[in-house]
Write a structure and sequence with these properties.
2 copies of one chain form a homodimer. By secondary structure, chain A is α+β, with helices and mostly antiparallel strands. Chain A has 22 helices and 11 strands. Chain A has helices spanning about 65-75, 85-95, 110-115, 130-140, 150-155, 160-165, 170-180, 190-195, 210-225, 225-230, 295-310, 330-350, 350-355, 355-365, 365-380, 400-435, 440-460, 465-495, 495-510, 510-525, 530-535, 540-600; strands spanning about 5, 25-35, 40-45, 50-55, 55-60, 240-245, 250, 260-270, 275-285, 290-295, 390-395. In chain A, helix 16 runs parallel beside helix 22 (about 540-600) and helix 17 packs antiparallel against helix 18 (about 465-495). At the A-B interface, helix 16, helix 17, helix 18 and helix 22 of A face helix 16, helix 17, helix 18 and helix 22 of B.
Chain lengths: ~600, ~600
């Protein structure tokens, strides 16, 4: 029976890639669902057949939870209008194909990054005075929202199915585990296609902001930072001290820099091979004991970190929202490389790396240990803005609101500017990549051929003593053919890392608007202090507490920025050195080859 | 009063060069005739203004010699159809604008090379069985055409005005001298535009065959080689021995290799600056005494060499038929460089360099000496095929017709193949030139800018200890901007000479079809020997003489080919070494610059 599918987003085929252009709303017939690499072969109404990114289509089948899906989209409709529509749609549809119990995984959208890179600027949030929006919400705000638990739920009203799903029975859990891990054996969601989404331009990815938006906004626009600013309950969980360092407020850094190795991806399968998945081996440098994790575990960790630290610490999206190889092996290799990058970045963060959930992920003893840890982490109440309640500025004076605001503004300006700079570099690098792998080598090859061609003409002259020249000329020709190949392969050796690093930073920077947004909202709240006291909404002591907590939030932000800066300096130093080193080698090798070619000509 | 002009050939404007596209037959208005470099500013009927190559238009003015011009085109109409029409038209029109007494200078066509490069293949001559054509002509041929003088005239029936013009009174001579030298002060013919013709693609030039065609064809298709094969008069002029060398038959080479330096172009002017011209200083390595020559003198020499040696030795066109700079200085420099190349090639040729007319050109004592020499050279009777009468194979056995034919075929194949090879290399080189001066440097510049841009963003972070990175990043950015410039300037340092040499060879190879054509015609003639005897057209002894002379012609051709080969090997060895040497330097310099940039990053 032939499977039909509905196109969710416009997709423009890249010439020569056997792709098929489709428009949103179009109905296509699936001709081959086992293409791999997140692609599916389909035929349109005009009978044209080609590859379409799996994420871009919705397979038409009876869905037990379709209504649930609709319910979800209704929820979404409650969101602030500035949440990119297609992305939120994606989030709903994405959950549907044959994964009934799959929780709505926010931001699991193939296009979310395209959206942002297509100018849907996360920064825009702050351009149309957030304060106004917040104070309006404030009026409608019921007094003293209770516990962190409530907040955690409120926090999730965008993807509220999520925690429940995790809190479901173990059996159920495993059930959807497999569904979710399913690789390519059906149109369902798979290891190898979440990351595709048909995105072509490498480094064009930008998956973060949407995800945080979905998590943050309900909290932000309704309960928001005041949840912490006015919280009465004592702080729960480990304290997060902030110290006065040379560069200003800093997190408490461990003596030993944690890191880990993500390696050895293995394809596992269950249910008689009907379902398969990729398992990565993660080995922390501390214990040096490898643990196995599937992609969904990384995603679970991401969810936990986002819930817990998201409003104080930008948590970059998992790589899968970003561009990857067209074929499965390539995809897996690339995803592993990027999971490694993501893990290393998390390891380098003093707060994250020392968190219980992260430690669990890196060094759980056995399946039971893992499951218990999971449950515990999912029940964690110190999430969202409540994380600030655990932050303790050590021996640092309270900051007045102007200082707090200045700092916040400064960070906003900087991250904004860097975001532009990084995107610019990615665009340029992208074009350079195309030229180095496209027209340039072709040209060197043609030069090489022209020399060799002339050489063989000369050989046909029948004139004596021709050999010396023709041999040298042929060698020169071959040299230019070699150079052509070197040119084509070079980007993988240098540009690749430059692009990957900037791509990582692009993702990281995409989180700042949300993180900084929480701070801006808090500042606005404190500013309204007097008014709120006057209208009897809060007491004077609550007002004082608010500004003290805003100061604490500011220290957290400053510590985080200083962490960002020191990492940035380290990363760019490293990647630029690596790039230039490879470039030097490249040009030296060419010079060397040409010197050899030159030496073969006899001086006369 | 505004000057109108008629467009002679289609011209497509190059974008960004302030040029104006015009179509053949279109009437344009000249808005500025003093643009220089062979360009004229004009306005079309739609009021669009831009530059048009002067050679492409005919200024509408009453022409005393218009009828003469028509007469000329009538003469041309007698030619074989495969002479490119526009070129011949050009040749006629070209003579017209305000140079009433100017002789019809054959091949003075701006487009002749475009014609050939546009696929009007000189080789085509031999594809539609020349022999047939020749024997037909033969039937119509009056018996035993007489002296070399007659032949010389017959030889000239294409540009027959020419010799007479030269043989005119001294006063008249000077008269048109000035006209002809006239630079840019009017729409008339000028130093700086004969070479232009708006041809854009460097190395695309190919001016030779047309010129030889115009000179040779009447002789070729009517009197042709039989003029020599059946000549009864004793050979006149210096003997040209051919010896058996290691590589086969060779010319007699002088002990001392003649060469000369073309330098120091001076703009002279006469008639109160109304007329001006460029004078080049030519200094032979023998006497080391400089003599001055204007372009027209080079052209005169070319004409003489072509008349005298053209059917035995390929005489490449003067550079002016080839692409040159857009602006006058650039043009003059380029023309000088190419005149130098042309002269050096002539100097290297044992037969040409030792010829009386060439010696005169290089080392005339004074104006009087020069004029007398000119007259004498113009009266030379041993021209056209009669040159073969002076060739004397020294101690070489007569070749039978099969050998003769084989050799001829072999040379034809080779020169044909090399012509293709050279054109191919020129095309590739041309594209590479464009890339190196266009998109590639732009890209490196953008990379450089992106780095510097990121660096200045970083500087704005306000984070301490940023300087080390930002300085290094800025330096890296500047380095890529330097590289951009290096890339853009490199072609002038290496590709230029590779292109020039191949361009020279393209011109040289373009002469072979004509030269070889003479031999093919002779072979056909000898083949008809028996038939001709049978029909009583020739005697048996004449037939014997014919085949002996065909053998002599073959020795001449072989000597010439061997000369060509040895020069070719030398030239390509030299130019490839030069090219690769510069390329090595280029890549080493880039590597060096990048090494410096790399060293500025602090290892952490």
């Amino acid at each position: 029976m032939e499977t039909k599918a509905q196109v969710l987003y416009d997709f423009t085929a890249e010439p020569g890639n056997n792709e098929l252009s489709v428009r949103e709303g179009e109905t296509i017939t699936l001709t081959n669902q086992n293409v791999g690499g997140g692609w599916i072969e389909a035929k349109n109404s005009r009978g044209e057949v080609g590859l379409v990114p799996e994420d871009y289509i919705e397979i038409k089948q009876a869905q037990p939870f379709t209504s649930g899906g609709n319910a979800a989209s209704l929820d979404l409709s409650l969101f602030d209008s500035h949440i990119p529509a297609p992305a939120s749609t994606a989030q709903v549809d994405v959950a549907q194909p044959e994964t009934p119990v799959t929780p709505v995984t926010p931001g699991f959208s193939p296009t979310s990054h395209d959206e942002t890179s297509n100018g849907n600027d996360p920064w825009a949030v702050f351009d149309n005075n957030a304060s106004g929006g917040v104070s309006n919400n404030w009026a409608a705000q019921p007094e003293g929202t209770e516990t962190g638990k409530t907040s955690s739920n409120a926090w999730h009203s965008g993807g509220h199915v999520h925690p429940q799903a995790y809190q479901g029975a173990g059996a159920e859990d495993d059930e959807w585990d497999e569904e979710w891990d399913d690789v390519k054996s059906s149109g369902g969601y798979a290891e190898s296609e979440a990351g595709e989404g048909g995105a072509i331009n490498r480094g064009g990815a930008h998956g973060s902001s949407m995800k945080i938006a979905l998590n943050k906004f309900p909290g932000f626009s309704k309960s928001g930072p005041e949840l912490y600013l006015l919280s009465k309950q004592p702080a729960k969980g480990t304290k997060l001290p902030v110290y006065g360092g040379e560069v200003g407020p800093v997190w408490a850094y461990p003596d030993y820099q944690l890191d880990c190795v993500v390696a050895d991806p293995k394809k596992g399968s269950k249910m008689y091979g009907l379902k398969s998945y990729i398992e990565y081996q993660v080995t922390p440098t501390t214990t040096n004991k490898p643990v196995n994790h599937r992609y969904k575990h990384f995603d679970w960790l991401y969810e936990r970190l986002l819930d817990k630290f998201g409003s104080a610490i930008p948590i970059p999206c998992l790589p899968d929202k970003q561009v990857t190889g067209r074929f499965e092996e390539e995809f897996i290799k690339m995803r592993m490389e990027r999971l490694q990058g993501w893990m290393s970045r998390m390891c380098r963060h003093p707060v994250i790396s020392s968190s219980e959930v992260f430690q669990l992920f890196l060094s759980y003893k056995d399946e039971k240990d893992w499951k218990t840890g999971k449950r515990k982490a999912e029940k964690d109440e110190t999430v969202g803005v409540m994380i600030f309640s655990t932050i303790e500025p050590e021996g640092l004076p309270d900051l007045d609101l102007t200082e707090v605001e200045q700092k916040c503004e400064q960070f906003n300006r900087f991250t904004r500017a860097m975001d532009d700079g990084v995107k610019d570099l990615l665009t340029v690098g992208n074009e350079h990549w195309k030229r180095c792998t496209g027209p340039l080598p072709k040209e060197y090859q043609r030069i090489g051929k022209a020399f060799q061609n002339l050489s063989s003409v000369f050989t046909s002259s029948g004139y004596e003593g021709e050999a010396a020249l023709t041999d040298a000329l042929t060698a020169a020709g071959k040299t230019y053919e070699d150079i052509a190949q070197m040119v084509a392969e070079q980007p993988k050796k240098d540009l690749h890392f430059l692009m990957e690093t900037n791509n990582e930073y692009k993702g990281l920077l995409g989180c700042f608007p949300d993180t900084i947004g929480v701070h801006k909202a808090a500042i606005e709240k404190v500013k309204e202090g007097d008014k709120l006291v006057a209208t009897g909404k809060i007491t004077t002591s609550e007002k004082t507490a608010m500004s003290k907590r805003a100061s604490t939030m500011s220290y957290a932000l400053q510590a985080e920025m200083n962490h960002f800066h020191s990492n940035r300096i380290y990363d760019y130093n490293r990647v630029m050195q690596q790039y230039l080193e490879q470039q030097v080698k490249f040009y030296e090798m060419i010079a060397e080859k040409l010197r050899n070619a030159h030496s073969q000509f006899t001086t006369m």
